[in-house]
Design brief:
The chain has about 475 residues and is α/β, with parallel strands linked by helices. It is built from 20 helices and 15 strands. Helix 12 links the parallel strand 9 and strand 10. Helix 17 crosses helix 19. The longest helix has 19 residues. The protein is globular and about 60 Å long. It starts with a strand and ends with a helix. The model has no long low-confidence stretch (mean pLDDT about 95). The structure holds pyridoxal-5'-phosphate (PLP). Pyridoxal-5'-phosphate binds next to helix 12. The site of pyridoxal-5'-phosphate has 16 residues, from helix 12.
């Protein structure tokens, strides 16, 4: 399998060449040159596989530069009961006939980002060892991504993580989760500022090409293809659990922000998984809902991006969206470049013509939006009727699934986080604290490793240089 850019760079690259990179050199996102099609016999064979072996089968269609035995071993080491809490890895539960929740958030940080990030950690360690190289991962986080990256990379050979977060602004639980890590290769840096200040520092460091090269600065952001392909696996696993035979259709409802999760659903559907609809659920930051309803993609300004009670979906632009639009334009990379490389930059967005917009439906896409009151009502209702507790992001997905569900349609709602991470909203919804997994008792009182610093690029660079020398 070879990878090409959404903006036209068609230098063929293999998986391990793009693994440690972010954007393609022309500013586009990497896509496989084609999606492998799964035939009925293969789908039948996959239905009975354990999760780790299913992951191996799917990944090996996209990765042909890691020996099969090594890749299988990486998958088996990653998707274990001890890391994800059950043999099913992504167990499905029924809310009512035809309506299911697929648990993607039983990994170490209790959010679905662990599903991909845990594999990324194993792949990074493997590839760096093979090359005899090391990597310093620099990132900015306001919540789930930073924690998932740290828990994936902790103790890994050849990798150090420098994670910037806005001082005092993450939830107490998220702070405790990240700052309690004592691994020598994990560095928490709390910046006296807001999330945008953290992100600006990351951009400034990455723009210093000499520093970047000298200290081998990398990232683990959501546009990484390896993360996306790892997420394709749980669409197959969810489908198999929700059906008895491969001629049934299933829809997925996906709480969405940067369009990474649901883009993996799009890839699964392109591979031939019998997915009826991909239901994109947004919160008040409804960039994507606006697009699927109107064909107009309008990036929001920072001041227009609202802080909500499903904070991991508070985005101003959907960074993975370019991949889907490139497919929607039937891989017209000149047109994709015009939309994302020019129109978004110059006009802050674009509007598709009616015929192109209408094609979104043939890719299965529909969308809806949820707000704070919807979230609370949905959490309360599921709690009262099923005695099942869901988190605010999953509630956005369920609310939109219920709004759009058609007679006879089977819908799997992806559970993207556990309620314990967002206890304030849970208390507001049901008047009591969510239960905490036993392993996390006393998390807030563990000793912390975090350095607080002003929003100063030079100070952050000095810290990286210091630790890089001692690596
Ligand atoms: C990241 C995240 C999302 C959004 O996923 P995207 O891939 O960015 O669309 C939704 N819910 C939770 C809990 C998340 O952490």
């Amino acid at each position: 399998m070879r990878y090409v850019s959404t903006r036209g760079d068609d230098t063929p690259r293999r998986f391990c060449e793009i693994l440690l990179e972010g954007l393609a050199p022309d500013g586009g996102l990497y896509l496989p040159e084609r999606y492998p099609r799964i035939d009925a016999a293969t789908l039948g064979r996959w239905r009975v596989l354990p999760y780790a072996d299913l992951a191996f089968e799917i990944l090996s269609l996209y990765i042909d530069d890691i020996p099969a035995d090594d890749l299988r071993a990486l998958c088996r080491r990653t998707y274990t009961r001890s890391t994800f809490g059950s043999d099913a890895i992504v167990p499905l539960r029924m809310l009512e006939p035809g309506l299911f929740v697929e648990a993607l958030s039983n990994g170490p940080t209790l959010a679905f980002k662990d599903m991909a990030m845990q594999l990324l950690g194993a792949l990074f360690e493997y590839e760096l060892a093979r090359r005899g190289e090391r990597l310093n991962i620099l990132g900015a986080t306001s919540g789930d991504t930073g924690g998932a990256a740290e828990y994936a990379m902790r103790g890994k050979q050849g990798v150090q993580v420098f994670m910037l977060s806005p001082h005092g602004r993450m939830s107490p639980f998220q702070q405790a989760q990240m700052f309690s890590l004592q691994d020598a290769n994990i560095h928490n840096i709390a910046i006296e500022g807001v999330f945008d200040d953290c992100q600006d520092i990351v951009k400034a460091v990455a723009a210093d090409l000499d520093f970047k090269r000298r200290h081998r600065i990398g990232s683990v952001n959501s546009i990484n293809w390896a993360r996306l392909v790892a997420q394709v696996v749980y669409y197959f696993a969810g489908y198999f659990q929700a059906t008895r035979s491969n001629d049934e259709l299933v829809s997925f409802a996906v709480p969405s922000g940067n369009f990474g999760n649901v883009c993996a659903g799009h890839v699964a559907r392109m591979m031939g998984l019998p997915i009826q609809r991909l239901i994109v659920a947004t919160n008040e930051n409804d960039v994507l809902d606006e697009f699927f309803k109107s064909g107009r993609y309008r990036v929001r300004a920072a001041a227009e991006t609202r802080e909500t009670s499903s904070p991991s979906m508070d985005i101003s632009k959907a960074s993975n969206f370019e991949r889907f639009v490139c497919d929607l334009l039937q891989r017209d990379t000149v047109a994709t470049r015009q939309l994302f490389g020019e129109r978004v930059v110059r006009d802050g967005g674009f509007a598709l013509d009616a015929a192109t917009h209408a094609r979104c439906a043939s890719y299965g896409f529909v969308s809806g939006r949820s707000g704070h009151a919807d979230r609370l009502a949905t959490i309360r209702q599921v709690w009262e009727q099923q005695h099942d507790l869901i988190d605010p992001h999953t509630a956005d997905g369920l609310k939109v699934a219920c709004d759009l569900r058609q007679p006879g349609e089977t819908i799997v709602v992806l559970e993207t986080a556990l309620p314990v991470k967002f206890s304030e909203t849970i208390v507001e919804a049901i008047g009591q604290q969510p239960e905490r997994p036993a392993a996390l008792a006393g998390l807030e009182s563990l000793p912390r490793r975090v350095e607080v610093m002003p929003a100063d690029v030079a100070r952050v660079k000095a810290l990286i240089a210091l630790h890089d020398r001692h690596a």
